[in-house]
């Protein structure tokens, strides 16, 4: 399949003949076919792309080293105008599990993971372009949590594998993104006493902003990343530990009325500065939301907030049972999160169902989130991660196609799930809690109306909606995110 994004009719149209592109498109495998058909592709590509102005097609390789796996993205761009953003022609990706952090005591194995993934790059990028195709690796949560010297050893091994490859290794090619500041901005000179490794050369931009750039690069008939752009999309992300919001406000007042300056990110594109409202709420992710609703966060016991996170859970008579009316009243089980195992149960008084549950969750969400001024003016929101997964679990959307939902759809379904959970043992016992948390977070947290529509998706135009594309664009165009 072929995708041409980000050009306006006439002016930015790529000059590579469309017939040629159509031929290329026919020859190109979809990501699922990567393994079987790439070999043939590498023979076809160089000969076909060479007759066109060679400097106009280029490639970039971005590794996303996450906590559960490592993913390679090989992007093919067409550049028609040095002043403009390139056009994304194709994305090839492949992933392996587990993540690099699983090899904490055998860095050579981590290097081997990267070496294996590099085969995708060798097969996608024509041999003649290897020397000028950059390799970049950005690590997130998994490596960030390791002791600094262990993470450093892993990264050095990756760097070594990069250098022995035939590709270009730019400065700052391997680094860890500072996740605790995913919405908070600090200049690179801020000294760090923590166990993270700072970006060696240049301060790493936060993933929320990079994901916004990725999605807006891909959405719309034409690129949304233009000055005076009117129709950008905002993004909502819900992880286990934190939740993020990023959008381009229409009104100055939304930026001016943000709590502190680190709710605002600026970056430069096409000679103008875009100002985003962006924030990451640590502790308001879905799993942390469960923990807080169950009363197991802070004070309540040996949770991630206590000092004893490395100790095994308290045993025997000391085991506390955490209860919530968001769980079926007769439910009793163990639940593990963040290296801890908790005893959890329904409400012992028998209170269960949506109304009780909502009241419990409101106590957790109320006041935790700043409600942006005129949130819904001008931005349509895409929602990712657990927003998507739980909408699938609740039967609201298809797990491949995704879908469009109103906030009230989450609420309606939360009510149904919660009020029927005693009678329906087939649904996950946590679905009522999770759906109610999402409803409450959207309405009472961020302040969305029930009529607000959200696009639930994993991909935009068949390209993974992740920070990786934004990070690649930033690498080439130094967007000066700050
Ligand atoms: C190819 O493109 C580059 C940059 O866009 C330009 O400088 C060069 O003159 C072009 N060459 C040909 C043969 O068109
Ligand atoms: C990450 O961000 C936090 C909060 O902004 C800051 O205190 C810390 O120094 C940063 N760490 C690195 C390695 O940049
Ligand atoms: C970009 O800004 C510079 C400096 O302000 C100016 O000289 C230049 O003409 C601008 N370019 C465009 C394409 O607007
Ligand atoms: C149920 O949870 C509430 C609130 O967290 C707590 O006050 C109460 O003691 C718990 N009940 C039992 C029987 O554990
Ligand atoms: C947890 O750690 C903090 C700072 O390290 C300390 O002040 C506090 O007393 C500790 N709490 C417990 C319960 O050990």
Helix content bin? 25-40%
Please describe the biggest sheet, giving its number of strands, its sense, and whether it closes into a barrel: 7 strands, mixed
What would CATH call the architecture of the domain at 18-176? 2-Layer Sandwich
- Determine the N-to-C terminus distance: 35 Å
Unreliable segments of 5+ consecutive residues: 1-51, 180-205, 299-317
The CATH homologous superfamily name of the domain at 18-176 equals ATPase, nucleotide binding domain
CATH class of the domain at 18-176: Alpha Beta
Number of helices: 13
Based on Cα principal axes, name the global outline.
Answer: globular
Q: Count the strands?
A: 17
Look up the CATH topology of the domain at 18-176: Nucleotidyltransferase, domain 5
Mean pLDDT comes to 77
Question: Reading side by side through the largest sheet, how are the strands ordered?
Answer: 8-9-7-6-13-15-14
Topology order in helix (H) and strand (E) letters: HHEEEHEHHEHEEHEEHEEEHEHEHHEEEH
The ligands bound in this entry are: 2-acetamido-2-deoxy-beta-D-glucopyranose
Kindly provide the radius of gyration, computed on alpha-carbon positions and rounded to a whole number of angstroms.
Answer: 24 Å
**Fraction in beta strands:** 15-25%
EC number: 3.6.1.6
Keywords: ATP-binding, Calcium, Disulfide bond, Endoplasmic reticulum, Glycoprotein, Hydrolase, Magnesium, Nucleotide-binding, Secreted, Signal
Active site: 182
Cofactor: Mg(2+); Ca(2+)
């Amino acid at each position: 399949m072929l995708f041409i994004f980000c050009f306006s009719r006439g002016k930015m149209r790529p000059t590579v003949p469309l017939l040629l592109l159509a031929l290329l498109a026919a020859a190109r495998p979809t990501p699922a076919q990567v393994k079987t058909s790439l070999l043939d592709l590498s023979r076809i590509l160089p000969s076909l792309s060479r007759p066109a102005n060679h400097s106009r097609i280029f490639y970039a390789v971005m590794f996303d080293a996450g906590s559960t796996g490592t993913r390679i993205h090989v992007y093919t761009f067409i550049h028609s105008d040095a002043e403009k953003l390139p056009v994304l022609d194709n994305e090839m990706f492949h992933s392996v599990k587990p993540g690099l952090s699983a090899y904490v005591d055998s860095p050579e194995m981590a290097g081997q993971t990267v070496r294996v993934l590099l085969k995708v790059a060798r097969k996608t990028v024509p041999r003649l372009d290897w020397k000028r195709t950059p390799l970049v690796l950005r690590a997130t949560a998994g490596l960030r949590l390791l002791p600094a010297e262990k993470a450093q050893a892993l990264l050095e091994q990756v760097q070594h594998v990069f250098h022995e490859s035939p590709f270009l290794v730019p400065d700052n090619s391997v680094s860890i993104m500072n996740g605790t500041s995913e919405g908070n901005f600090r200049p690179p000179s801020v000294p760090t006493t923590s166990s993270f490794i700072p970006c060696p050369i240049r301060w790493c931009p936060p993933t929320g902003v990079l994901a916004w750039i990725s999605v807006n690069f891909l959405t719309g008939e034409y690129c949304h990343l233009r000055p005076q752009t009117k129709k950008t999309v905002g993004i909502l992300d819900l992880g286990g530990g934190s939740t993020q919001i990023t959008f381009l406000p229409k009104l100055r007042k939304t930026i001016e009325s943000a709590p502190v300056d680190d709710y605002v990110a600026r970056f430069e594109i096409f000679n103008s500065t875009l100002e985003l409202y962006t924030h990451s709420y640590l502790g308001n992710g879905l799993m942390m939301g469960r923990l807080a609703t169950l009363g197991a966060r802070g004070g309540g016991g040996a949770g991630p907030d206590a000092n004893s996170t490395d100790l095994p859970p308290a045993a025997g008579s000391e085991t506390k049972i955490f209860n919530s009316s968001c769980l079926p009243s007769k439910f009793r089980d163990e639940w593990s999160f963040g290296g801890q195992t908790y005893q959890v149960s329904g409400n012992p008084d028998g209170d269960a169902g949506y109304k009780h549950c909502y009241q419990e969750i409101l106590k957790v969400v109320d006041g935790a989130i700043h409600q942006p001024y005129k949130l819904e003016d001008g931005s349509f929101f895409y929602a990712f991660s657990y927003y998507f997964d739980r909408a699938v679990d609740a039967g609201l959307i298809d797990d491949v196609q995704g879908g469009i939902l109103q906030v009230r759809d989450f609420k309606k379904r939360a009510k149904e799930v919660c009020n029927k959970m005693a009678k329906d043992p087939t649904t996950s016992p946590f679905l009522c809690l999770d759906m109610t948390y999402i409803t409450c977070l959207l309405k009472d947290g961020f302040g969305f109306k029930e009529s607000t529509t959200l696009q639930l998706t994993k991909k935009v135009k068949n390209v993974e909606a992740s920070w990786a594309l934004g990070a690649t664009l930033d690498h080439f165009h130094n967007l000066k995110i700050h």
